[in-house]
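sry for the spam today, last one i promise. C-alpha cells for design, 323 residues
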C-alpha cells in the first residue's frame, strides 16, 4: 500500500500542464446495441466516415461492432481464426501499400500477471462494406521480455507502423513490438517507456506526433519519445476502459464498459504544448527513474501521502472488479 501510494504521489507531482474543460466535453453517443455490454476497446474507422469500432471484454465471442455517430450498430463481424480469451483493447491503422484500413484486436488481459505463456494480437483488414459478416485474422503471439504482464492497451504508430502494448500495473510500461511481426513464432515485447499507474487503454494520434495513455481517472499525453506533454481530465464513467483520438486528432474519445455505455468527446486545447515527433519511445525514457522524471521530493510525498492512500484503495477496488 505504501509503495503504491508513493507512486500516486509521483503522478500528482509531475510538473506538466493539465486541463479538463467540462464545458466543451460532450457526450458523442451511447451504444444502443444490447449485445455491446462491456465495450473495452474503441477505434475510429480509417476509411469509413463517422464509423467507430468496439468489442466486448472477456467471456465474449471473437467479434466486433461497427457503430455510427448516433450509437446505432451498422454491422457485427465475427473474426475467423481468433479466440477471445480476454480481449482488452483495439487499434486502427492504414496499410500504406493498399490504402485499406487495418484493425488490431488485443487478447492481452492477464489478471494473474503472467499466467499465460504468451498473449495474442489479431490483425484484420477493415471490411470494405458495413454489413454483418465474417473476417479472417492473422494471429501474432507475444511474450514480454522480463516476464508476463497484465495489459489493457495497444496502439500503433501511424508513421513507423510499430505496435505497442501498454501494461496495467502499479509501475506500468510501454512495450514495443518488433518492427517486423512474425506469425510463425513468438514475438518479444521490450519495455521502452514508463506508463501511468493502472493504465486501461492507449492510442496514437493520427499524425504520430503524440500518444495518450488513460487510467480509470485521467489521461496523459506523451511525445513518441516517452516524455510527458500534459494530463487531460476525463469525464466520470462507470468503468473507464477505452480511449482513442478523433480522425482529425483534435480531441479524444473516452468510453466505458456497461450496457448502453456512453462515448465522450474531449477536445484538446489549442494552446497544447507542441510535441516534437520522433520515431519511437526511447530506451533512455524506459531507464529513467520515476522520481527523477517527475520531480519527486520527500516533502511532496508527505503532503500527498494521505490522499494517495485513499486513491489507491479506490484503484484496487476497481482493479478487482475487472478480474
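last one done:
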Amino acid at each position: 500500500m505504501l509503495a503504491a501510494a508513493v507512486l500516486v504521489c509521483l503522478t500528482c507531482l509531475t510538473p506538466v500542464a493539465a486541463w479538463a474543460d467540462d464545458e466543451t466535453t460532450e457526450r458523442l453517443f451511447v451504444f444502443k446495441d444490447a449485445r455491446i455490454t462491456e465495450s473495452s476497446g474503441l477505434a475510429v474507422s480509417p476509411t469509413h466516415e463517422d464509423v467507430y469500432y468496439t468489442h466486448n471484454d472477456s467471456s465474449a465471442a471473437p467479434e466486433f461492432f461497427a457503430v455510427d455517430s448516433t450509437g446505432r450498430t451498422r454491422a457485427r463481424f465475427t473474426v475467423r481464426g481468433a479466440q477471445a480469451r480476454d480481449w482488452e483493447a483495439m487499434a486502427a491503422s492504414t496499410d500504406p501499400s493498399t490504402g485499406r484500413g487495418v484493425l488490431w484486436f488485443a487478447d492481452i488481459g492477464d489478471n494473474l500477471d503472467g499466467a499465460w505463456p504468451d498473449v495474442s494480437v489479431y490483425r484484420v483488414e477493415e471490411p470494405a462494406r458495413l454489413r454483418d459478416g465474417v473476417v479472417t485474422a492473422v494471429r501474432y503471439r507475444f511474450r514480454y521480455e522480463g516476464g508476463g504482464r497484465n495489459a489493457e492497451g495497444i496502439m500503433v504508430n501511424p508513421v513507423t507502423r510499430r505496435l505497442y502494448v501498454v501494461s496495467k500495473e502499479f509501475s506500468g510500461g510501454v512495450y514495443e513490438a518488433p518492427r517486423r511481426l512474425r506469425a510463425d513464432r513468438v514475438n518479444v515485447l521490450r519495455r521502452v517507456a514508463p506508463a501511468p499507474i493502472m493504465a486501461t487503454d492507449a492510442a496514437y494520434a493520427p499524425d504520430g506526433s503524440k500518444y495518450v495513455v488513460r487510467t480509470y481517472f485521467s489521461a496523459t499525453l506523451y511525445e513518441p519519445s516517452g516524455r510527458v506533454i500534459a494530463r487531460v481530465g476525463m469525464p466520470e464513467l462507470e468503468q473507464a476502459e477505452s480511449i482513442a483520438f478523433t480522425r482529425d486528432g483534435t480531441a479524444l474519445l473516452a468510453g466505458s464498459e456497461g450496457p448502453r455505455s456512453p462515448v465522450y468527446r474531449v477536445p484538446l486545447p489549442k494552446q497544447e504544448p507542441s510535441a516534437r515527433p520522433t520515431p519511437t519511445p526511447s530506451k533512455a525514457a524506459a531507464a529513467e527513474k520515476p522520481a527523477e522524471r517527475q520531480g519527486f521530493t520527500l516533502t511532496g510525498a508527505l503532503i500527498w501521502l494521505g490522499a494517495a492512500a485513499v486513491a489507491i484503495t479506490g484503484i484496487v477496488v476497481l482493479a478487482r472488479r475487472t478480474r
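Confidence is low (pLDDT under 50) at residues 1-15, 272-278, 284-308. ok im logging off now
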